[in-house]
Amino acid sequence: MSYNSKTSSLTFVIVSAEIAEIRIDARQNSRSLYSRKTFAKDDVIAQFGAKETFSEPTYLTVQVGDNEHIELLPEYLECINHSCEPNCFFNTTTLELVALKEIAEDEELTFFYPSTEWDMDQAFKCTCGNKGCIGMVKGARYLSPENIAKYRFTDFIAGKLKSIL
Ligand SMILES: [Zn+2]
To answer: pTM of the prediction?
Structure first.
């Protein structure tokens, strides 16, 4: 347990794996995944698979196809939160979590939810605070052309985006 004076939050590490650890913020009741290593751009952070496959999305699943949504293995990867300035990307073709930029040890791992999700089960208002924050996060199908040009998407989502352009 550690008290983080910077964010005035009570943070607990609940799961620690070789590459990352889950931290719980007791005040905000939120889970996050923090890197325990340094990664260079394009490094493979982890390989992942499907614990289970569902035909409908939930707030924990990653979309790999039409009516195909997986719960992640290793499970701690489901604690990677959304950011509009993400540092990782779930490549659902190669089943690799890759670094989009250099990642420092102790940095929170984040990905851009619409990079894998076409139409999300639970839309939410993003509070990432980045300059380019997209606001409501609802899925790739709702993105502006500017944001479609800005982000990297899975092969599946890229194909869907092409079909509506
Ligand atoms: Zn944002």
So the answer is: 0.89
Tokens of 164: 């509506």
Neighbours of 135 (CB within 10 A): 9
* 83-94 mean pLDDT: 97
- Distance (angstroms) between ligand 1 centre and the Cα of 63 equals 20
- Provide the token pair at 53: 């496959």
What is the residue-averaged pLDDT of the chain? Answer: 91
CB 77 within 8 A of CB 95: no
135 C-alpha to ligand 1 centroid (Å): 6
Q: Please list all protein residues whose beta carbon sits less than 5 angstroms from ligand 1, which is an ion.
A: 84, 126, 128, 133
Check residue 9 and give its pLDDT: 59
Cα–ligand 1 centroid distance for 83 (angstroms): 5
Domain positions in the chain? 38-103+110-159
pLDDT digits (tens, 9 = 90+) for 98-129: 999 999 999 999 999 999 999 998 999 998 88
Which of 2.170.270.10, 2.60.40.1120, 2.40.30.170, 2.115.10.20 would CATH assign to domain 38-103+110-159? Answer: 2.170.270.10
